Amino acid sequence: MTSDDYLVAFDSDGCVFDNMEFKHKACFVPSFIDFFGLQDLPLQAREIWEFVNLYSTTRGINRFRGLKLSLDLARARFAGEGVGAERTSTIPPSPDLDSWIAGARHLSNASLEEEIGRSGSEELKNVLAWSLDVNRRLLEGSPQPFPLAARAVARAREGARVRVVSQAPGNALRRDWGAHGLLDLTEGIFSQEDGTKEDHLRCLLQQTPLPGDRVLLAGDAPGDLAAATATGVLFFPVIPGAEEGSWEEFLHEGLPRFFRGAFAGGYARELHRRFEEALPATPPWEG
Asked: Domain of life, per the record (predicted)?
């Protein structure tokens, strides 16, 4: 068999690149507080955003879905903690955001701009301003790949075709992968503008028809596992907080098993079990 007989897809943020903590704590959280009226409860707002987007089963979710979940959780938390009706009422309702998320094919700035042009929604204008502010803050960072992740991409390319699948904006992905010489190892990038991870994988399978046991997705979020399961491909988890150990296992056991056809079955199930145990579904303040 040749490299054309295998495909390895890599998620980017928090998986290949060590930037999830920076981008959420230094970029998303301050904008979330500033644009959605949470200045007098910054610690609670930070904990909510970080739980939804970093430390739970929704880690890695699309930014707009993450915003909706965070606003919903903030309303429920503040009401439950007796903050008071006068306080919870200042958290903006989000019917236009909810409706757009429910009906949009792609959740991206471009799609949001189209909806604003159609509806003129002031609520969605604020959401777009928030998203653009996040992108501005992200430009201030210079993310680095996990050292073993960069080696893993190069090793995968020796025996397989390589693609990037991510919910980050495409321009940021091209910048980050290009800055570290990794973009040339890939055959292209699927980004936020191209739909969900499941959309990405289905498109890849149409472009490169291969059996599911010859396609491997490496990711750090439960949504990545769900996308792999839905499309019938294999999944290797990069466990949050244990990234270097995960990449070491990928290099020395996961990838070799993939190439010799011994990944599916018991090994895959054990990986999934360890991954699912690493991220909780219930917020700590509800425990």
From this structure: Bacteria
Q: Can you tell me which residue has the tokens 């769900």? A: 226
- Cα-Cα end-to-end distance for the chain: 51
Nearest alpha-carbon partner for 187 in 162, 222, 217 = 162
Q: How far apart are CA 154 and CA 166, in angstroms?
A: 18
Query: Tokens standing for 280?
Result: 């909780």
Ramachandran assignment for 37, one of left (phi > 0), alpha (psi -120 to 50 degrees), beta (any other): left
Whole-angstrom distance, CA of residue 54 vs CA of residue 25:
10
Is residue 55 within 8 Å of 282, Cβ to Cβ? no
CA atoms within 13 A on the CB side of 55: 12
Read off the pLDDT of residues 184-242 as tens digits, 9 standing for 90 and up. 999 999 998 999 999 999 999 999 899 999 999 999 999 999 999 999 999 999 999 99
b/e 272-285 (16+ beta carbons within 10 angstroms → b): beebeebbeeebee
Both structure tokens of 122: 């002031």
How buried is residue 105: exposed, middle or buried, by Cβ count under 10 Å (0-12/13-18/19+)?
A: exposed
Average pLDDT, the chain: 93
- The 3-state DSSP class for residue 165 equals strand
Mean local confidence (pLDDT), 21-50? 95
Residues near 228 by beta carbon (within 8 Å), at least 6 away in sequence: 201, 217, 219, 234, 235
